[in-house]
Amino acid sequence: MASINLIEAFQEFKDAENIDRPTLMKVVEDVFKTLLRKKYGSDENFDVIVNAEKGDLEILRHRIIVEDGDVMDPNEEIAYSDAIKIEPDFEVGEELFEEIDLFDFGRRAILAAKQTLASRIGDLKKNVLVKKYADKVGELVSAEVYQVWKKEILLVDEENNELLLPRSEQIPQDFFKKGDTVRAVVKKVELKNNNPVIIISRTHPTFLAKLLEVEVPEIFDGLITIRKIVREPGERAKVAVESFDDRIDPVGACVGMKGSRIHGIVRELKNENIDVINFTTNIQLLIQRALTPAKISKITIGQDGEHADVYLPSDQVSLAIGKRGVNIKLACELTGLDIDVFRDNDEEEDSQYDIDLEEFVDEIDGWVIEELKRIGCDTARAVLQLSASELERRTDLEKETIDEIRRVLQEEFDRE
Questions:
Q1: 292 or 349: which carries more pLDDT confidence?
Q2: Where would I find the K Homology domain in this sequence (predicted)?
């Protein structure tokens, strides 16, 4: 049988390690029984014996030996004179087993069978892959970067299955090259042109949840539960946690001694700031914790229960809002409320907000910020309230530098 060169088709068996042998053997049997039906009109009296390990098969035909001239169905019976040509010791009434030579099917039929077999096994592989990763949605996986494109990255897992990490699922500061190991969560499994496409993500809140589960044994053991995670990937995240054991401080357990547990996660997330807070059903207290690190003076919840007005000291407003409004945006997502921030005094700028200079470290050099702080300007509005000439007189900064600083700060307010 091996001489017919079906080895290439059977080689798929050895590659398809995730497909169970009975399923594979059934596929091969079905393919060749189809071949038998086309040639003989029936497969009732044929046995297809598959040896998946060796990569070969044999087809046995069994018929009853009858007297010459008494053959009613050539698929079930064989004349005595024909039977003794195969083995002279046969007698009428015995059952004859005869091996079918694949050459009898013809070259074209065999090629068609090989193509069908390869196609069926390919479909099985796809189905196994889809099921495997469909069961892993939301799970943490590691894969190696195989190819980097502009809009996505192709990775391969330990079994050489292909995974896709689209640009939209990457942290903005992510930079990977071929051979790097990447951790992410399985987001979804799609079928495109009948081919499985496995999408992984590093921006999904579940990614942070799984990293916490790895770093914090209490979460893995179920002693601490994560109630909600909201993220602005690469910038800030807020995690509400709750403990079912009064002896365990959920925030302290997640952060670890001197931040030992959270630091590794922060590095993985490209220095994303992570605020871990205690979950509570007290909505006012939850808002207060959600607006960390700002200190709140007063909170008023709207009658509709969907809106909150938060009043803070002047120097805390910028902290509550955060750069580009990220902090308050995440607080709204975490609490499920629309939150408006106000100063808790009657100044003319009651509804205005300020921004801490530390929020501009990406655009303004650290030494420049320190120089501005030296003269008492620690917020954006404090800087803009001074004229360019006054800043030039009181600091060691060049006029061009001052003009650039004022432009950056003013653009931030204009955007808001």
A1: 292
A2: 233-295, 304-396
